[in-house]
Design a protein that fits this description.
heterotrimer; A mainly alpha; B alpha+beta; C alpha+beta; A: mainly alpha; Arp2/3 complex 21 kDa subunit ARPC3; 6 helices; C: alpha+beta; T-fold; nine-stranded mixed sheet; three-stranded antiparallel sheet; 17 strands; about 35% helix
């Protein structure tokens, strides 16, 4: 975890994970949170699956690199800058919280994911407050946090499946 | 590094529930803070907004006056514990000064040129919801 | 494990309940159409419908303001003819209809005189008799020619829809409110109020009519739902001439001078969110104020059932139509004598 070497293999791995995250962010567009919470730009946070996975499997630095690449490319594809702010703040908050929670050895993948999902939505809320210049939107935060309990559990479940399937595989060298 | 030591626990445990409970608690806390009526214990509150932004919210009994500048005009707002009035304004219409004292919840002083609104808010009052005229 | 999940779900459920429990009241204050407007909505989509109402009002102002050079009205006044937006054309047709109905007491062609007096500006003045007489022939609906969306004016004439623009805006807000999921709300657009549905407590809205003589008091209070209340009065905006005479802002199209009325204020109440009742109340309130007590009462008698009104007279009486009987609260200690009108 401390020293992933930037070998060609690991670089390729990061690229694959970035692509996966982009795929997931396209997938989550199919479930627009905006139906429940009328804020443009708010996402479910399925891409956290990749963040969780990368965090444990490759370490904090590569996970951050993947996050930046995903946010940058994602907003490039979507063609708007405010989406970048939403995904960036959401992603970064989730990442920081998960790095912290990961040190709490007693927590399983579920606890870490739920913490990350909640942080993700708090980050997006911050982005909404910045872009709209209006703290009224805070009223939606309870809904978003409730949603994050579900998405966090889901993310943890999928990540657990992944780790189980790869119990005997070591990806990074 | 054959079995990656950093791999996480994969089963739910009570510590995860603590995290989930904390998130739920935070949600409830935000909901309560946001949706519960703001502290309105029957006290009349002075609310001043300039250019569409609330700039001040003080209990009438604690309010001793202030100066607000917006849109290039400055209003001197005075108070005596029972009421609020605009004592001086450099706006062209002077409507805000002419409005005089307001003392009851629901009343407001509006300065159109300066886009400043001084509004008295109160809790359960028998006053009207809206004033026309 | 299962136990924990149940607990979690219970927490989520409880959470969503707390958030949905009380209907949310949203409020929005805006400055538009040369006045201060206050919008309030209760219930689902409240914030959203207020945003849309605010946008709608701003859009209308861009079309209807006499002082915004690109507006339909300014274009018509500047060029003598123009093609109007569908909505503006409809409003102009209605304005002309109300002029006829009120015998010219409400007239949109008053614009040249409004301009002369500088009524809407920061520097009003008292013009000379000759100046007024020179412009009086330009006032009258016969100078406006409207067909479809095309409109033209006779040489030197101008129109000002300011007298009904706020009423029209309240109609548009009423339509937005009606189409939304809110359970209640009101729009107070500078003397024009529309109340929709009920308050958060499930009661009709309490609409107080300003006491024209005391800024701190109300002439009366009405309990209303789905109704428009529009008040016109000389006390709302006025200026003092060099000789100390107080001139108020409503100009009598017949004399070219600010109306001299035996009424201090007129409030017209109309019902139903559809078919332009807000615009109608706005036009009527101005016209009835200009007409004075006797003509106003006659006007109402001729069309009873279709609207209600409250007149505050110079000699301290508050007259109200019998339709308001059940929703009318006198203000105790106001000093006014309250008299219901006979049908």
């Amino acid at each position: 975890m401390t020293g992933m070497k930037w070998t060609t293999k690991n670089l390729a791995l990061c690229a694959v994970l970035t692509a996966l995250a982009l795929g997931l962010s396209t997938l989550e567009n199919l479930f627009p949170v905006s139906l429940v919470v009328p804020l443009p730009g708010v996402k479910l946070g399925l891409t956290n699956i990749v963040t969780v996975f990368a965090l444990y499997e490759l370490g904090a630095v590569p996970a951050l690199v993947i996050l930046f690449a995903r946010c940058g490319l994602g907003s490039l594809f979507a063609g708007n800058v405010s989406a970048l702010l939403f995904s960036m703040l959401g992603g970064l908050c989730a990442m920081l919280v998960m790095i912290g929670l990961k040190h709490c050895r007693k927590l399983s993948i579920y606890g870490v994911s739920i913490g990350g999902a909640a942080a993700h939505n708090i980050g997006q809320m911050a982005a909404a407050i910045i872009t709209l210049g209006n703290t009224m939107v805070l009223g939606y935060l309870p809904f978003l946090l409730a949603v994050s309990l579900l998405t966090g559990t889901l993310t943890g479940f999928v990540a657990a499946l992944l780790f189980r399937a790869m119990a005997h595989v070591t990806l990074s060298h | 590094m054959s079995t990656n030591p950093s791999r996480p626990e994969l089963k739910w445990n009570r510590y995860d529930v603590i995290v989930a409970a904390l998130v739920a608690l935070l949600a409830v806390a935000v909901a309560l803070w946001f949706y519960l009526p703001k502290v309105r214990s029957g006290e009349t509150t002075v609310v001043i907004s300039a250019g569409g932004q609330e700039t001040e919210r003080v209990r009438l009994s604690d309010f001793s006056g202030t100066t607000v500048t917006c849109n290039g005009y400055t209003l001197q707002i005075d108070a005596d514990g029972d009421g609020v009035w605009v004592s001086h304004s450099d706006c062209p219409t002077q409507d805000c000064v002419h409005t005089g004292h307001i003392t009851r919840a629901g009343q407001s002083i509006v300065c159109l040129p300066a886009q400043i609104i001084i509004h008295l808010e109160g809790a359960a009052n028998d006053g009207p919801d809206v004033i026309v005229g | 494990m299962k136990r924990w999940i149940c607990l979690l779900l219970a927490a989520v459920l409880a959470l969503s309940l707390t958030a949905c429990g009380a209907p949310k009241t949203e409020a929005l204050d805006i400055f538009a159409m040369d006045t201060y407007m206050s919008l309030v909505a209760v219930g689902d989509g409240a914030f959203d419908v207020l945003q849309r109402s605010s946008n709608e009002i701003n859009t209308l102002e861009q079309k209807l303001s006499r002082t915004i050079a690109t507006s339909d009205v300014a274009q018509l006044n500047a060029n003598g003819s123009t093609v109007l937006d569908e909505g503006t054309a409809e409003l102009l047709r209605r304005a002309l209809r109300y002029s006829e109905e009120t015998g010219g007491a409400f007239d949109v062609t008053i614009a040249p005189l409004v301009e002369l007096w500088g009524i809407t500006t920061d520097h009003p003045r008292v013009p000379a008799r000759e100046e007024i007489d020179a412009l009086l022939p330009l006032v009258g609906t016969e100078h406006v020619h409207a067909a479809g969306t095309e409109a033209s004016l006779d040489e030197g004439c101008a129109i000002d829809l300011g007298g009904i623009a706020k009423g029209y805006a309240s109609d548009c807000v009423a339509a937005l409110f009606a189409a939304s999921g809110i359970t209640g709300g009101f729009a107070s657009l500078g003397g024009n109020v529309y109340v929709h549905g009920d308050t958060a407590d499930g009661q009709p809205w309490k609409v107080a009519i300003q006491d024209p003589q005391k800024t701190d008091a109300f002439a009366c209070t009405l309990h209303l739902s789905d109704a428009f209340v529009v008040t016109s009065g000389g006390y709302q905006r006025n200026f003092t001439g060099p000789d100390g005479t107080v001139y108020q802002h409503i100009i009598d199209p017949a004399t070219g001078y600010p109306a001299v009325s035996d009424l201090l204020s007129v409030s017209v109440i109309t019902y139903g969110a559809a078919d332009g009742q807000g615009t109608r109340a706005d036009a009527y309130s101005t016209a009835l104020y200009v007409m004075g007590e006797e003509a106003a009462v006659d006007f109402w008698r001729a069309r009873q059932a279709s609207f209600d009104m409250v007149l505050v007279t110079e000699d301290g009486r508050v007259l109200y139509t019998p339709g308001l009987k059940d929703c009318f609260d006198e203000t105790e200690g106001s000093g006014y004598v309250y008299q219901p009108l006979a049908a």
